[in-house]
From TrEMBL:
<feature type="repeat" description="PPR">
    <location>
        <begin position="186"/>
        <end position="220"/>
    </location>
</feature>
<feature type="repeat" description="PPR">
    <location>
        <begin position="221"/>
        <end position="255"/>
    </location>
</feature>
<feature type="repeat" description="PPR">
    <location>
        <begin position="256"/>
        <end position="290"/>
    </location>
</feature>
<protein>
    <recommendedName>
        <fullName>PROP1-like PPR domain-containing protein</fullName>
    </recommendedName>
</protein>
<keyword id="KW-0677">Repeat</keyword>
<feature type="repeat" description="PPR">
    <location>
        <begin position="151"/>
        <end position="185"/>
    </location>
</feature>
<feature type="domain" description="PROP1-like PPR">
    <location>
        <begin position="87"/>
        <end position="219"/>
    </location>
</feature>
<dbReference type="Pfam" id="PF17177">
    <property type="entry name" value="PPR_long"/>
</dbReference>
<feature type="repeat" description="PPR">
    <location>
        <begin position="116"/>
        <end position="150"/>
    </location>
</feature>
<feature type="repeat" description="PPR">
    <location>
        <begin position="291"/>
        <end position="325"/>
    </location>
</feature>
<dbReference type="Pfam" id="PF01535">
    <property type="entry name" value="PPR"/>
</dbReference>
<feature type="repeat" description="PPR">
    <location>
        <begin position="11"/>
        <end position="45"/>
    </location>
</feature>
<dbReference type="InterPro" id="IPR033443">
    <property type="entry name" value="PROP1-like_PPR_dom"/>
</dbReference>
<feature type="repeat" description="PPR">
    <location>
        <begin position="81"/>
        <end position="115"/>
    </location>
</feature>
<dbReference type="InterPro" id="IPR002885">
    <property type="entry name" value="PPR_rpt"/>
</dbReference>
<dbReference type="InterPro" id="IPR011990">
    <property type="entry name" value="TPR-like_helical_dom_sf"/>
</dbReference>
<dbReference type="Pfam" id="PF13812">
    <property type="entry name" value="PPR_3"/>
</dbReference>
Length: 474
């Protein structure tokens, strides 16, 4: 700050030179301080000084400071020009303030100026960063009606907006438009178009774009290839995904964790659990550490392949790597154990989820219920203890299973022993959701009431629920 204090009588020109210097060095706070110093020294800033200050705040991504100085400039009866407005819009773009960028853009024409390509690019980029793809496409349509010639940046920003809006057809049209206009699509444009196709689950279009890149002598990067692998995963093209992964390795393009996770997920969705395990085993060889998403996809592949032991081993492997399993990981493992009729393990895993603050969902509870049902596991109050806390989710799980397998739920031994009052309450509530099966469930509840040694208050509540059941739940 000593250098700033040494310019008390430098005049407007001297201050402006210093402000420009601060802007080039990304020292926006000093630039703002210098503008204030000008006023204190009774050197009234002119439009050039304000432009320099606003440009400095833009380089520092300080959109609020940029707007404050724009307002101060107008208050001083100074007319903002295209440079002023372009810098303010760019500051908003860098901070994702798309609404303000559009507002300022509207003010450009109102002030009698024609927006240039740089302004259009900034506003398009602001809309893209704000996931406002519709606003970006409307702006692109307006741009096309002007006499301006789009740059690669213009196309790239519009393409990224299409990607985020899953507008794959618009993205393909933009690539074609670039060629017609004589603007060669770059890697960024192709990557955005491929990603748009991936998000919209159009794997064939993504593959075609990858082929077009090579035809244009452009080398796809990891992002482009990973997006294409992910598109194949969504299109259930596991063999194509593995082929792309192999091509990446041969071209010395190093696949990352995202690439492998997408390839593993492709194998998982098409029931190729062995291929998924092979890919997971390859990752350390390429100095890649699997993440939670990678493990979850591999465990899910083992679950679909009815490999419950392998699913458990993978869960243990996560712990050795100090990776915290999420709800998806636990649910896939529990579902694998359900298929293996490992009802005790499913209960242990359900309890572990609670210890790790992972929230079970309907699928989780349904899998535990299914494992216990298949193995006839719920035979004592201790076995039923975990279900006492299922609450509404347990009811929903029972509802799902009842709709799919009504007879299995009716005959399930989870009604055996002391099933717990809440579970019976869930059953009676379930009857109300399925009135046609009310009689069967009420009979079951009556038998359990007579067999169990419930306390008096529990027996009273069951009798009340049975009465509700007999009267049609009214």
């Amino acid at each position: 700050m000593g250098r700033i204090d040494a310019l008390p009588h430098a005049g407007v020109k001297g201050y402006t030179i210093k402000i420009n210097s601060c802007g080039r060095q990304s020292r926006w706070t000093e630039a703002v301080h210098l503008l204030g110093e000008m006023r204190r020294c009774q050197s009234e800033p002119d439009a050039i000084a304000y432009n320099a200050t606003i440009s400095a705040t833009e380089k520092g991504a300080q959109w609020q400071a940029a707007l404050q100085h724009l307002a101060a400039m107008q208050h001083a009866k100074l007319q903002p020009d295209v440079i002023t407005q372009s810098a303010a819009i760019s500051a908003c773009e860098k901070c994702g303030q798309w609404r303000m960028a559009l507002h300022l853009f509207a003010g450009v024409a109102q002030n009698g100026f024609e927006p240039d390509v740089i302004i259009y690019n900034s506003v398009l980029s602001a809309c893209e960063k704000g996931h406002e793809w519709q606003a970006a496409l409307e702006l692109w349509a307006e741009f096309q009606r002007s006499s301006l010639r789009p740059s690669v940046v213009t196309y790239d920003a519009t393409m990224r907006a299409c990607e985020k809006g899953q507008q794959w057809q618009a993205a393909l049209e933009l690539v074609a438009e670039m060629r017609r206009a004589g603007v060669a699509p770059d890697v960024m444009a192709y990557s955005a178009a491929v990603s748009a196709c991936e998000k919209a689950q159009h794997w064939e279009a993504a593959l075609q774009l990858l082929s077009d890149m090579r035809r244009d002598s452009l080398e796809p990067n990891v992002i482009t290839c990973s997006a294409t692998v992910s598109a194949c995963e969504k299109g259930l093209q596991w063999q194509v995904a593995l082929q792309l992964l192999s091509e990446m390795r041969r071209s010395e393009l190093r696949p990352n964790v995202v690439t492998y996770s997408a390839a593993i997920s492709a194998c998982e969705k098409t029931l190729h659990w062995q291929a998924a395990l092979q890919l997971l085993a390859e990752m350390p060889q390429h100095v890649l550490e699997p993440n939670v998403i990678t493990y979850s996809a591999t465990i899910s592949a083992c679950q679909k392949g009815q490999q419950w032991q392998m699913a458990l081993q993978l869960l243990l492997g996560m712990r050795r790597l100090e990776l915290e399993p999420n709800a998806t990981t636990y649910t896939a493992t529990i579902s694998a154990c359900e298929m293996g009729r490992q009802w005790q393990i499913t209960q242990l895993l359900l309890e572990e989820m609670g210890l790790h603050r992972q929230e079970p969902d309907v699928t989780t509870y349904s899998a535990v219920l299914g494992a216990c049902d298949a193995a006839r596991g719920l035979t004592s109050s201790e076995d039923c203890r975990l279900f006492a806390d299922c609450g509404a989710l347990a009811l929903r799980a029972l509802t799902v299973r009842s709709a799919a397998h009504p007879r299995r739920v009716e005959s399930s031994t989870c009604w055996g022993g002391c099933c717990g009052l809440r579970m019976l309450g869930c059953a009676l509530a379930l009857v109300q959701l399925h009135p046609a099966r009310r009689s069967s469930y009420c009979d079951r509840a009556a038998k359990e009431r007579s067999r169990s040694g419930m306390a008096a208050e529990r027996r009273t509540l069951v009798q009340r629920n049975a009465l509700l059941c007999s009267t049609g739940g009214r």
